[in-house]
Structures are given as C-alpha cells and as structure tokens.
Design goal:
With 632 residues, this protein is an alpha/beta fold. It folds into 2 domains: 2-426, Amino acid/polyamine transporter I; 465-631, no CATH class. Helices cover 61% and strands 9% of the residues. It has a 6-stranded mixed beta sheet, sandwiched between helices. It is elongated, with a radius of gyration of 27 Å.
Length: 632
Amino acid sequence: MKEHSDKKIGWLSLAALGVVYGDIGTSPLYAMRESFDPGRGALVTPEHIFGVLSLIFWSLLLVISLKYLVLIMRADNQGEGGILSLMQLVLPKKNGTESKPDRSSIKSKLILLLGLFGAALLYGDGVLTPAISVLSAIEGVEIAAPSMGNYILPLTILILFLLFWLQSRGTSGVGKLFGPIMLLWFVVLAILGLLQIFQAPEILRALNPLYAIRFMAHAGITGLFVLGAVFLAVTGGEALYADIGHFGLPPIRIAWFSVVLPGLLLNYFGQGALLLSHPDMIQNPFYYLAPEWAQIPLMILATLATIIASQAVISGAFSLTFQAIQLNYLPRFRVLHTSETEAGQVYLPKVNKMLLMATVLVVLMFRSSSNIAVAYGIAIALTMVITDILAFFAMRSIWKWSLIAAIPVSLFFLLLDLSFLSANSLKFLQGGWFPILIAALIYFCYRVWIRGQRLVAKKLAEHREPLSEYVNNFDRSQYKEVDGVAVYMTSQLLKTPVTLIHNLEHNKVVHKKIIFLGIAIKNDPFVPHKDRLLVEDLGNGFYRVLVKYGYYQRIEMKNILNLWKEDDALRDYVKGLTFFVNENTIYVKEKSPLRRLASSVYVFLRKNGLPATRYFHLPEKQVFQIGMQLEI
C-alpha cells in the first residue's frame, strides 16, 4: 500500500514539474541577463557577479523555500491554495460561527479589499508570463542563426496560439505531457551549469550572503534596478500556492527540493562562472552556456519549457476565476471541468480567449523580452506583499500564534517583499503600469459585480414576503392543481420566490408538490457528501431544500437529483420535474455618472455570463423561465 502511495506521489511530483514550476523554471533565460542590463544594471565585474548571484541564491531560499514551501503553503483551505482561498480562510465569520463570512467590519473590508486586489494582480502575471517566457526562448535564434531575427515575433505569436489552444486538455493532461519535458529541462540546466562551475569553482563563494549585502550597500540606485531583475528569479511563487489543490503539498515540495532548486542554482552559478571569464557574453549568458552545436536543440527545448512556464499561470487564472464565480465575485462564465476526479482542474474558454488576446498585445507592444522584463515583476511583488499581510491574519486566527511569534515572522517577510516591490516600482513608467492597469480593471469588475448583485437582491426583496408565512396562508383551492413537481430555484430560502408569485398570478396553476431549492456556496472549498443536503417539509405539499457546495466543487443538477434519491422525503420526487428559474432584465437609472458607469458595466457583465439554466446544467425541456424588469 505504501509502495502504491509512493508511486502516486512520484507521478504527481513529475506532473507538478509540468504545471507548477514552469514559470520559475524558465527564469534563467532572462534573470541574470537583466541584472547586468547595459542601461540600468550592474557592471559585469567579478565583485558584481558574486553580489548578484548571492542575491539570487538567498532570494530563492528565503522567498520560495522558506516563505512559500514551508510557511505560506500551511495556510491551505481544506487542501486548496491561492490568494482567494487564503482570503476566505481568514475572513471573520458571522457570530463566531463557521458559516458565512462577516463582511461588515473594518477588518473584513480590509481583508476583502486586499484579497480581491491581490487576485486581480495575478491576471497581469497571467498575461506577461507567456509573453516574456516564449519571447526569451525564441530570441535564442539571434545567437544560433542571426539571419532569422525577423521571424522572432511571428514565431512567438504562433507558439502562443498553440499554447492557448492546448488549454482545453486540462491541467492533468498537460501535466502528463509536459512533466517529462520539464524534468529534461532541469537536468539540462544542471548539466550546463556544472560544466561552467568546473571551469571556475571560485564562483561558489557567492553562497556567502556578505556578497549580497556588500553589493546592495555600495550599488546605490543601481542596486534597486538589479534587485528588480533578481526578483525575476522568484516569480512563480504564487503559482506554487495556487496549484496546491491540483497536486497536494508533498509532491510540490519533493519536486522543488529534489529537482527544481538544484537545477536552478547550478545554472545560475554556471552563468556566473561563464561571465567571470567572458563578460562580453552578457548579451545572452544562458545560451552561451551551450556549445555552438547544441544551441538550436537548446532553443527548441527552451521553447517547450516556456510553453510550460505559461501553463502554470494560465491554469492558475482559470482556478482563480472559477473560485471568484462560485463565491459570486464574478458572473457565471462557462466552466469546463477537465478531470472527473480533481475538482480544481477547470478550463474557461472565455478567459482563455481574453488572456490570449492580451498576451499577443503585450508581444506586439513591447517586442522583446528585455522590454517586457521592465514591466514584469511589479504586480507579482505587490501580490506577495498582500499575501504576507493575509498570512499574518492566518497566523493569528487559524494557527493561533501569539503576537510575539507572528509579528517578527510577518515583518521579516514583509520587509523582504517590500524591498522587491520598491525595486520594481522604479519601472512603473517604463511599462510596470501595464499589469497594474489590468489588475485595476479586474478589481473594478469584482467590485461592480458585488455591488450590482447587492442592488438586485435589494430590489427583489421588495417583492417578497417570508416563506413560512406565505405557505401557512396558502389556499390551493384558488388555483388549478396539476400533477408533477415544481422546483423553484431561489437564492433566499427564507423569502417567497418571485417566480412562484408571478406564476400563480398569471397562470393560476399550482403543482401538487412544490420544492423551493437553494444552492449555497460555502466559505470552504469542499462540503462533505453527508452534509450537503438539508430538507424541510413545510406542509401542504411544500418543501424547502438547501444544497451546500464548496467553492471548488462542481455543481450540476443531475448530481443534486442523485442526492435527492438518498433522502426519504425527496426520493419519490426526482422525475416529472419542472424547474422555474428567475431571469430578470436589468435597466440602469442611476443619475451619478460614476454610479451609472458601474451599473452599466454590471449589466454588461451580466449579459456575458451564463444563465442559471446553463450554469447548473438544468434539463432544457423542463425549464420555465420567469422574469421581471428591474432598475438599478
């Protein structure tokens, strides 16, 4: 049994290489080069090479190994990670219960603001990572075959189209396809680095943190620019956390410490050793590590690796959007579940198209990986700062750490990430504004949707009365009774659905059995099967049914009906159902220009989302839609 478990962990670790570690695994293509950029970076001298390498080494150890792999990934929400999961985990609960989060307090509003904006920032990463990764790989053509320089942009765009086309295969399929390739990539990284380290073993002196401290102490403003470039070596940390639900913590840790970290460090130190004797090769030290005959095969392998690098952030964007939809922070987009066994493996066609268009736009705007590197980093650094703050709330409320323990640990990592953020902020006007603009637009959509849903709920409440009171006073003799079961879907089970009131007023027909069905998305990623269904017999042929799901779980009507078959009160009412669904038409009447804009955007988002009938996969021939016109 243990042997079987070890084998499964081994396969998951291999798959994690192909999904989780693509982003950080391709950083050697550009991180060292950008640190010595002729316009902004350090001079290619032995002292500076030791200083930059020391910064990279300790950044990987402190940010990725210690902060993410040891600390942050402890803050999983029933096995799920990512900034939205962390936000939901630390949001204060109403009346101290484990039910709904309390969003009214100042602390709750702060956590909600940080969590939603941090999630929005990850979309900027999802746009820039594919662009910089693929471009940096294809740019190797200029070294191996200078005459093909004009084909770099067309080849990059072609590969990006192929990459986004592959997304529909799902995380599991892509992981199995890319895992072995990524393993080969890290082995090649290690071999190329080792060959150079053997030529200049003194490069290992950079393991001493004093070189990093001395460099930052004497480099002045150049040190900040270099720190911004060094940060490129640790981008991908959030992907580790976001993808924890796909593979679990042990495979991700095993893959990092056994394969990824050794391969990265050996390659970075190999590049440093090369530059000690050949500072003129700073144009692209990664490709110069390889002999001339191996540069074209290395470029092909690097291209495959950068496709994988993009996969990590793209799958993370899908998971993030799915969570936001389930938690009602975004409208219902079409969601395809690409695995029958893993709940978090999803594909969203509309999000995929938007990411593709934005990524191609980035390539055409910036035209080189060095230009994109200027824009890259600021959004990720800000996300890491937000994660540090949310992790402090987790230390206090979840892990029950004392202030004496929580404050020093939080401050250490916060100061570390703030230094990276300060360094990247210098690049704001040179392109760093682009991912921040994307994040601002996404965050605006979050807030607009939350506000719009609240206004619609308030309007609908004006037409409702308490359900128990309505049922008690209900007189069936006033209507024509028909056979069958009517299912009225509602978001508020304590209030009478508007669909029922309108149906009875206009059609004068009542079914023998009426079920009020509410689907509640809980604050947790998963709700156990045994706790998923609550049934209340209201008398007179009325039933109130609540089905509870976690925000990572797949919701389909056929699965809900399977739950009904297990319940004594409902097992006879799974056939001959008619579903009554409320589909309202929203009009904007706001006079304030800003509020009118927000309401108009809400209407646009609502029109582009899926109706409940399609999102919950209701049987098409059994649905009756009733709506009303609402002004907000």
